[in-house]
Amino acid sequence: MSNAIRLDGVTKRFGVHTAVDKLSLDVPGGTIYGFLGPNGAGKTTTLRMITGILTPDSGSLTVLDGHDPLEVRERIAYLPEEKGLYKDMKVLDMVSYFGQLKGLTRTEARQRAEERLRAGGLGDWIGSKCNELSKGMGQKVQVIATLLHDPDLVVLDEPFSGLDPVNAELVLEMIKRYKREGRSVIFSTHVVEHAEQICDSVVIIDHGQRKVAGTLSEVKATAERTVLLDYEGDPGDLAGLPGVVSADDSGQHAELKLSADADAQKLLEMLVARVRIRRFDTREASLKQIFLNAVEEARHEAA
Fold first, then answer.
1. Is 272 left (phi over 0), alpha (psi -120 to 50) or beta?
2. Which residue in 147, 188, 138 sits closest to 27, CA to CA?
3. CA atoms of 98 and 101, how far apart (whole Å)
4. What is the Cα–Cα distance from 220 to 289, expressed in whole angstroms?
5. What is the pLDDT along the chain (303 residues), one digit of tens a residue?
6. Would you give the DSSP letter of residue 303?
7. What is the distance in angstroms between the CA of the first residue and the CA of the last residue of the chain?
8. Cα(61)–Cα(59) distance, rounded to whole angstroms?
9. Where does residue 273 rank: exposed (0-12), middle (13-18), buried (19+ CB within 10 A)?
10. Do residues 283 and 226 make contact, with C-beta atoms less than 8 angstroms apart?
11. Is 22 exposed, middle or buried (0-12, 13-18, 19+ CB in 10 A)?
12. Closest Cα to residue 5, out of 38, 32, 44?
């Protein structure tokens, strides 16, 4: 599969502050990729380099199969976190204007803008000025405007900020539709549940450095798992079994923490030989817990 984005040792500094520190990353084309990290982690700086707004101080960065971002800017869409509308422009005029900036003809831009505004439930507001919109409607208008030219690479910085649950769901569906069409979508978010719901892959960054990256299954495989065990009999020392990091055994019920490389099937076989099993429930760590663990570990390293 072709690469939508490739970063190799990318560093970006602002004075004495290093915002992105030797970041390397491959984002496959046609996927949804999530950038996770706390405030100040370097997410926005990275996204701005990907879109060509900023230039790396060192390292290399290419998009859409080896291009400099500025060479293919009409194939890229960027929705920044600091969103804003031209308040005195009418909604239809503003959305179609954004399309023309990305290469659409005036007629094509207005036709496409009207179709998508109506499809997004904003048909009654087409002739209204942007300053008459609610915050949620304004956010949705800006998303439609950003994506009007049907880009190959969609870059969204905190796209769910300020949206109510209904409009957040509409943005989620829009992102999934672009993936079905073979486009590449990357977005940053503080809402880890959104990333877990729709992302094929994620990267967790903190202090400008990559902490964890990969497909959701790969990322979750790096974390400890939990086994909830109900049993009858004497299992012996559960904490001493292979792959068990710790065991909270209350007799008849135990909660086992497994290492990332533990073989749960072999553990079950060993337990069956010792006791009668009533329940053996393996639970993988949530992406939220992995995120919190990665950030906490980074804080300890910094300290």
1. alpha
2. 188
3. 5
4. 10
5. 588 999 999 999 999 999 999 999 999 999 999 999 988 899 999 999 999 999 999 999 999 988 999 999 889 999 988 777 898 999 999 999 999 998 899 999 999 999 999 988 899 999 999 999 987 788 889 889 998 998 999 999 988 877 778 778 877 888 888 889 889 999 998 778 888 888 999 999 999 999 999 998 888 877 778 999 999 999 999 999 999 999 999 999 999 989 878 899 999 999 999 999 999 998 887 888 888 888 877 666 655
6. -
7. 40
8. 7
9. exposed
10. yes
11. middle
12. 32
Q: Evaluate if pTM is beyond 0.70.
A: yes
Burial grade of 280 (CB within 10 A; 0-12, 13-18, 19 or more)? middle
Residue keyed to tokens 């009858």: 232
Distance between CA atoms of residues 192 and 136, nearest Å? 20
How far, rounded to the nearest angstrom, does the alpha carbon of residue 287 sit from its chain's CA centroid?
11
